[in-house]
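This entry is retained here.
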Amino acid sequence: MVILLDTGYLFSLYNEEDKNHTDVKNSYSKLLNGDFGIPIIMDYVFDELVTLIQFRTKRNDIATEVGNLILSDCKNFIQFIRVDKSIFSEAWRLFQNQSVRKFLSFTDCILIKYAKINRINMIATLDKEFKSWVETIP
């Protein structure tokens, strides 16, 4: 069993002022205990997260600190996955064919296609759009 980690979830975890911080922190402690299986962070999520932190805080040192914390966790319990060409192509097709009012980001499409192809049924996210695709926490 594995669980994918989404950008918004991780952003809330590292942002104590975020309205979802407490819920995410509680679910993250369960995640650390292995309650949801092996956590996976995709390279696109890592990119999106450190870029978002840098953009919102206007501080590269904070984005770097969080990035280093995540990379350190990747040595211990989080699996770091790079997107391959087939996942990229599938995600690009999904991205191009969206016709709903609330669009998925390309990174969200990557997560959805990776989950589907690898039969992963859980994503740690705050985005409601994922609920029609997979189970979500918190």
User: Anything to note?
Assistant: Strands lie at 2-5, 38-42, 79-81, 122-124, 135-137. The radius of gyration is 14 Å. The chain has a mean pLDDT of 94.
